[in-house]
Design goal:
With 412 residues, the protein is mainly alpha-helical. 70% of the residues lie in helices and 4% in strands. The protein has helices at 2-17, 19-22, 25-42, 48-63, 78-84, 110-119, 123-134, 138-142, 146-152, 155-166, 171-178, 185-195, 200-212, 214-225, 228-231, 243-260, 265-280, 284-307, 312-315, 318-348, 367-379, 386-411, and strands spanning 72-77, 93-96, 99-106. A 3-stranded antiparallel β-sheet has the order 1-3-2.
Length: 412
């Protein structure tokens, strides 16, 4: 009889601690959303390298919330502690209602420890290191005017920053929301952990979702703001860039940024270090490690832990809806301003610049540049805009990091 009672108690204990009793409707909704995101990542291949771990992290934290729990202390009666432990007591003792308790530390969840790399601002700069190793700044160096288009695409960040304050967000929260317009996931995460960490899940998912949807969001805006004649412009071939120019570029950029905008130095500095690894040609082993093994490891940790911040209780709020809407507005506005400045350059050069390359000023490398190429070829099959669009595209990477530094300096 005692054995049967023990078995029943064990079954009841397992049931009471299971998700069937501990999870609420919000968790189940987020589980559904995570499955949709997994479908988009696997079936549709929308930014799968980041969307898949983000979605799975979201799934994990809503199935097992303790996986993101922080370390805490458990008050154990002194007599019980002494009975189970030998040697001197190493932890503080608290007296409560005439009884003594040992403040015994408990471990946090697995993803909480991995999340510290996000919280402390470690993972995003390391992602930028890998991006630098894979980026060719040659098109930007060959056509420095591309910087204007990269800068223009960041205007959406600051317009949305103002709009978010109007919608009731604090200045710090508005800065984190506005950076979504840069279409740069690591930068959005870096800024949000500094300014509004409680919004990280919503902002990260919005940022990476819009990055994945670049081929869907951008073309209608590009076609709306340009004429068929403008979209058909064939640009002249870019001049060759010497190895010395490519080596000097990251050094000069990091000096300028670190002096005039030190808050952007962690992101821009690591981006340029990675690019120097690539262009110097003397550290091939380090270059390959940074753009492959290190990049892959950090992507796993970053994506999974960011997804794990999107628990039902944190994510399913009216503020999340506003953030997603404002993020889309920022991204569309960035694309529009890039194209409009492209039109200005088209007029200033007598029709030598195709305005479509301005849309690549957002920091979704190289997807935004490919969209410029695709839309251009739809009007003129002999048009090859990819290398021209890469100039504004890589300028957008630098521009989003600079915009992040400005926001951190102003509201941080």
């Amino acid at each position: 009889m005692e054995i049967l009672q023990g078995f029943v108690d064990a079954v009841v204990g397992i049931f009471n601690s299971s998700g069937l009793t501990t999870l609420n409707w919000q968790n189940y909704v987020m589980i559904g959303i995570s499955i949709v995101l997994l479908y988009l990542a696997i079936k549709k291949q929308y930014e799968p390298l980041l969307l898949l771990p983000i979605a799975f992290g979201m799934l994990l934290v809503n199935l097992y919330p303790s996986i993101m729990s922080a370390p805490s202390t458990e008050m154990i009666p002194l007599a019980d502690y002494v009975k189970d432990h030998t040697g001197a007591i190493q932890y503080p003792i608290t007296e409560l209602n005439g009884a003594e308790y040992v403040n015994y530390p408990t471990n946090g969840g697995l993803l909480w420890y991995l999340y510290q790399g996000v919280k402390l601002g470690i993972y995003p700069p390391l992602i930028f290191l890998g991006i630098g190793c894979m980026t060719d700044f040659g098109p930007l160096i060959s056509n420095p005017k591309s910087l204007i288009l990269g800068a223009a695409a960041q205007i959406g960040i600051f317009v949305t920053f103002t709009g978010a304050i109007f919608f009731g967000f604090t200045a710090a929260e508005a800065g984190a929301i506005g950076i979504i317009g840069g279409a740069d996931g690591p930068t959005a995460i870096f800024v949000t952990t500094k300014l509004a960490p409680h919004l990280l899940g919503s902002i990260a998912i919005a940022a990476y979702s819009y990055m994945a949807l670049v081929p869907i969001i951008q073309p209608p805006i590009m076609k709306l703001l340009t004429t068929k004649k403008e979209r058909s412009v064939v640009m002249e071939q870019l001049r060759p860039v010497s190895k010395l120019e490519k080596i000097m570029f990251p050094v000069i950029v990091v000096i300028i940024i670190a002096i005039f905008l030190p808050d952007a130095a962690p992101l821009v500095g690591m981006l340029m270090l990675g690019n120097l690894f690539k262009e110097s040609g003397v550290v091939e082993r380090i270059n390959k490690t940074a753009q492959n093994e290190l990049m892959n490891i950090i992507t796993i940790f970053l994506g999974t832990t960011v997804g794990a911040t999107a628990s039902g209780q944190n994510f399913l709020t009216f503020d999340t809806i506003k953030i997603i809407a404002l993020g889309l507005f920022a991204f569309c506005l960035g694309t529009a301003f890039g194209v409009l400045f492209g039109k200005i350059m088209y007029l200033a050069t007598g029709g030598k610049v195709n305005p479509l390359i301005g849309s690549a000023g957002v920091s979704a490398v190289p997807m935004a540049a490919r969209v410029s190429q695709k839309v251009g070829q739809q009007e003129n099959p002999g048009n090859f805009l990819l290398m021209h669009a890469m100039g504004p595209n890589v300028a957008g990477v630098i521009g989003s990091a600079v915009a992040a530094g400005v926001l951190l300096n102003v509201v941080g």
